[in-house]
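Hi everyone,

Forwarding the result from last night's run.
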Amino acid sequence: MVSPSPAAAALAERVRARAADLNDELVAFRRDLHAHPELSRAEHRTTDRVATRLEAAGLTVRRLEGTGLICDIRARAEGPSGGMVALRADLDALPLREVSGLGFASTVRGVAHACGHDMHTTVVLGAGLVLADLATQGDLHSDVRLIFQPAEEVQPGGALDVMRAGGLEGVEAIFALHCDPKFDVGQVGTRIGPITSASDTVTVTLTSTGGHTSRPHLAGDLVAALGHVITAVPAMLTRRIDPRSGVNLTWGAVRAGNAPNAIPSVGSVTGTLRCLDAGAWAYAQELLVDVAKQVVAPTGVEVDVQIVRGVPPVDNDEKSVRFLDESARTALGPDSLQLTEQSLGGEDFAWYLTEIKGAMARLGTRTPGGRTYDLHRPDVIFDEDAIGVGVRFLTQAAARAGRER
């Protein structure tokens, strides 16, 4: 491994010092967001809080329609300038009741930041403040766009709103962090290629005449047919698609009938189709419809398959990952970098990567030696020391972009 250049090391020290100066403010900012979570496309207060702080730093904010905002930091360094890079954060919370016991726990009933978006927002805000200082000092060689995106938790996601609003215009590469409570604070996880999965919502609805359970031969046995759909369709998909694509169909809800002696006339099963390969994702949607019809055909009931397209996989560009790797080593030390595993969770950051190069990394949020949580749990706790780590990492990446990309 090559040691960072003197210029990169000096930049890392300046970033570390400025991030340390901002730490108490950023922790307080994050706690305020955490106590006042807002659901997708309702992030009005959160948008206002971010905009107010950026404007106080002398930056110009462009609000998106509804919620969310974009803020450009212009490079002022002399000499050649690199293309614009973007840092993305997501603003929304989840419809969960928080049971963390924190003193700054959610004050909004049934809504909680259980995925860490309050951490993401705070980290990108902090990186923006440090980058603005660097620009003022003439030490920012690339324009940087801060994207505070609404509605990541719903499909197909607020990333498409940002793109329709021109959020990627002029941007050459985009980076993001996502909290990972399986990594210790101070660690960053990266991976070349797919890091998250495509995710679609699938509903299979069956209909028949219905009838008496004593005479199933006179009516389509709809509940039995649903059973075949539940067990056979996922199994058949795994035999018709390359297993290396990571295709997974899992059902989450079944609805059919109310009486023990009546065969219902309508029933449905709903679940998620996930896939790590973008090519297989498109094929799996078409194949699922055919497989469901073939499985149900012998039962004599009618079948309808509805697939609501969600998000593609987050497919990290190799050059962007290498760039983040070097930024992590320089900003956080040689032992900070980890290989992260692939996840079958969906993430709408993937939409940006269908248009431009970029990468998402994992930000360790577990207290060293402490408890390991999972995301979307109502009791999840993120170690706030990760805020400063994320600020240093993203700032280093954005500040280096104009010099080394």
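The chain has two domains: 6-194+314-404, 198-311.

Cheers,
N.
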